[in-house]
TrEMBL record:
This is Major facilitator transporter. InterPro entries: MFS, MFS_dom, MFS_trans_sf, Proton-linked_MCT. Residues 13-399 form the Major facilitator superfamily (MFS) profile domain. GO terms for molecular function: transmembrane transporter activity. The chain crosses the membrane at residues 51-68, 80-97, 138-164, 170-191, 220-243, 255-273, 285-304, 310-332, 344-367, 373-392. Keywords: Membrane, Transmembrane, Transmembrane helix. SUPFAM superfamilies: MFS general substrate transporter.
């Protein structure tokens, strides 16, 4: 089946997943951090202080997600959406009216839980369950929602905030969720996708259906997170401290905001490419390579001060994120099956959220202690190259055991 035919036959489900990931942007770090300067000023917070608050709030969402994420296994995607989208809108309203640090922390907790966490988790879990042979394609398409959000929302936010203020911009985000996202998404996913006779046979079979308890006893599960955490950790750090970075380099915030479009284009391009590769070779086979562009991106950003380094970093970040976003959507059903996919993937997403929580707080504290921020970025690049070697061994181990009966 051609890619265009695939899009035509599955338009409503792919569009629903795409919009879920698109509107998850309101709970993503790149969007929240656009208000970081205003928040630090109005609440009297330092880089480390706001980073720590952000870390604590995000850690709270990471601890909640493994429990809340299981609802995707128990209820239809439609009913889950009817709950999580209004909750994200409520969080956006809270951001607009927050007046103290405690309410700010709770607001960020809700934004991270229902935006970065549940909207993304619901979309990818649905694609993993609804598609098999074409899972890579499906995940790559809905991943474009993230890329589209990264391309358009920073520029929109900056422009609107100049006109009406940053708090009113958050109110407008809440209105978009309630009056646009909710009715459109619910109408698209009202009917769950069922397997069709026209679906091709999968080249790579899913594993048997592991329970979450069995997955937690699997050493591979923990080794995977050494790689899975890296894109979330690094991306969150760079986006969260983007204002500080441009101050260090002498760039304008408008210039750096403009690089998001380049990153989004590269991410979208390589998400689609990786989707085709996953359907052909498997997600497990691509594990050793997805961190290499990210490692190179960090070395460039850490070592060079010219404006070109911002564009080079974002381009390479887009390559790595394109591969990783599609990879993570297809990886878990390949290794652990689909029956308990919601609960297993919720735990995986929680780990990624945990990584994104640790990044701003840890690096913010190091900045406050006088540790070079460019030096920290270089260290992240070295980590990526080292973990790529670990992922090579993990890939070999998973493929080797796939030829044998899995032990419980």
């Amino acid at each position: 089946m051609s890619f265009l035919a695939f899009l035509r036959e599955n338009a409503r489900w792919l569009a629903g997943g795409f919009l879920l990931t698109l509107f998850s942007s309101f709970g993503q770090t790149f969007f929240i951090s656009l208000s970081a300067g205003n928040i630090r000023e109005e609440y009297g917070l330092s880089h480390g202080g706001f980073g720590t608050l952000y870390m604590v709030a995000t850690l709270g969402s990471a601890l909640t997600l493994p429990h809340l994420g299981q609802i995707v296994d128990r209820y239809s995607v439609k009913h889950v959406a009817l709950f999580i989208i209004p909750m994200l809108a409520l969080a956006a309203v809270s951001m607009a009216f927050s007046t103290n640090v405690l309410l700010l922390a709770f607001t960020i907790y809700l934004l991270r839980l229902f935006g970065q966490g549940m909207l993304t988790h619901t979309s990818f879990t649905a694609m993993g369950r609804w598609f098999s042979a074409q899972r890579g394609r499906a995940v790559s398409v809905v991943t474009l929602g993230h890329n589209t959000g990264e391309a358009i929302f920073p520029l929109i936010f900056v422009a609107v905030a100049v006109a009406v203020g940053w708090r009113n911009t958050w109110l407008m985000a809440a209105a978009a969720l309630v009056f646009v996202a909710l009715p459109v998404i619910v109408s698209l996913i009202a009917v769950e996708r069922a397997p069709r006779a026209s679906d091709p046979v999968a080249r790579v079979s899913d594993a048997r259906d592991w329970t979450r308890a069995e997955a937690l006893r699997d050493p591979v599960f923990y080794l995977l997170f050494l790689g899975v955490m890296a894109p979330s950790f690094i991306g969150t750090v760079i986006f969260f401290h983007q204002v500080y970075l441009v101050e260090l380099r002498g760039w304008s915030l408008e210039l750096f905001a403009g690089t998001f479009t380049l990153m989004a284009v590269m991410t979208a391009t390589f998400a689609l490419i990786s989707g085709q590769l996953i359907d052909r070779f498997s997600a497990v086979a691509l594990l050793p390579s997805f961190l290499i562009p990210l490692g190179l991106a960090c070395l460039i950003l850490g070592l060079f001060e010219g404006q070109w380094s911002a564009f080079a970093f974002m381009a390479l970040l887009g390559v790595s994120w394109g591969f990783s976003s599609t990879l993570f959507g297809a990886l878990w059903p390949e290794i652990y099956g689909t029956r308990h996919l919601g609960s297993i993937r919720a735990l995986a997403v929680a780990i990624m959220v945990f990584a994104s929580a640790m990044g701003p707080g840890l690096t913010g504290l190091l900045i406050d202690l006088g540790v070079s921020y460019p030096g920290q970025i270089i260290a992240m690049g070295v980590y990526c190259f080292a973990i790529s070697l670990v992922m090579l061994q993990v890939s070999r181990r998973v493929r080797a055991r796939a030829t044998q009966p899995l032990a419980a």
